[in-house]
Design a protein that fits this description.
This protein has one helix spanning about 20-25. By secondary structure, it is mainly α.
Length: about 40
């Protein structure tokens, strides 16, 4: 499909190895935004 970029959002609700998994597949960190966990998930 000749995609030049795929945008992936991840958060604390992903598994503990999710980020490492994405990075092993070629994804690179573009930006990090830290926000408090919503009470719904606490």
């Amino acid at each position: 499909m000749d995609a030049k970029r795929v945008w992936l959002h991840t958060c604390n609700l992903d598994g503990p190895h999710a980020l490492a998994n994405y990075q092993k597949r070629g994804f690179r960190i573009y930006d990090v935004v830290e926000e408090p966990m919503p009470e719904l998930y606490s």
